[in-house]
Amino acid sequence: MGVPEKRDVTHDAVGERARRAGDEAEAQAARAMENLVGTAGFSGMLGQLAENTAALTRLSNDAMDLVLRNLRVAGRRDIVRLSGQLARTEDKLERLLQEIEALRAERPPPVPIPKAKAAARQPANGHPAKR
Q1: What mean pLDDT comes out for the span 15-43?
Q2: How far apart are CA 74 and CA 64, in angstroms?
Q3: pTM (2 decimals)?
Q4: Diameter of the chain by CA atoms?
Q5: pLDDT tens digits, residue range 104-130?
Q6: Nearest to 63 by CA among 81, 76, 50, 48
Q7: Strand, coil or helix: 106
Q8: Is-contact 91 84, C-beta < 8 A?
Q9: Which residues contact 91 (CB under 8 A, 6 or more apart)?
Q10: Residue 9: CA atoms inside 13 Å, Cβ hemisphere, count?
Q11: Are 76 and 65 contacting, i.e. CB atoms less than 8 angstroms apart?
Q12: Shortest CA distance to 78 belongs to which of 59, 93, 86?
């Protein structure tokens, strides 16, 4: 049983060396990344990346609007424009209804027509006469 014990020790030693090598490689990579991130070039690159992302987003939105316009489907700008027109039309209609209500309030109530006169005004076929 002496041989298996020696083999376990050797196996453990190899595993320990591999773990230390992995830890050392990880520490080295961490130092390299910290040096990279700490440079002015990295911050400049990060700024350009943000600018490019914003520009690509704007271009894709414009392209999608163009596709929708060519397909004759209402795009975002069309919807916004139509909603403004609808709001203006609703405001005009509301003002018109208020004006009609004011005119009705000013008008005297209608005088009822006696039934005998109403019957005389209508022809025998039941339809009012055309003028």
Answers
A1: 86
A2: 11
A3: 0.35
A4: 134
A5: 988 887 788 877 666 666 665 656 656
A6: 76
A7: helix
A8: no
A9: none
A10: 6
A11: yes
A12: 86
Range among 6-20, 22-36, 94-108, 111-125 rated most confident: 94-108
Give the Å distances, CA to CA, from 25 to 15, 32, 34, 98, 117.
15, 11, 14, 81, 111
46-105 residue pLDDT tens:
899 999 999 999 999 999 988 888 888 877 888 999 999 999 999 999 999 999 999 998
The 3-state DSSP class for residue 23 equals: helix
Cα-based distances in Å from 23 to 14, 17, 33, 39: 14, 10, 15, 25
Report how many helices (DSSP H) and strands (DSSP E) the chain contains, helices first: 4, 0
**CB under 8 A, 24+ apart: contacts of 61-70:** none
H/E stretch holding 78 reads: helix 76-106
User: Tell me, what's the pLDDT at 1?
Assistant: 47
Give every CB contact of residue 74 below 8 A, 6+ residues apart in sequence: 68, 82
Hey, what are 69's tokens?
Answer: 């316009």
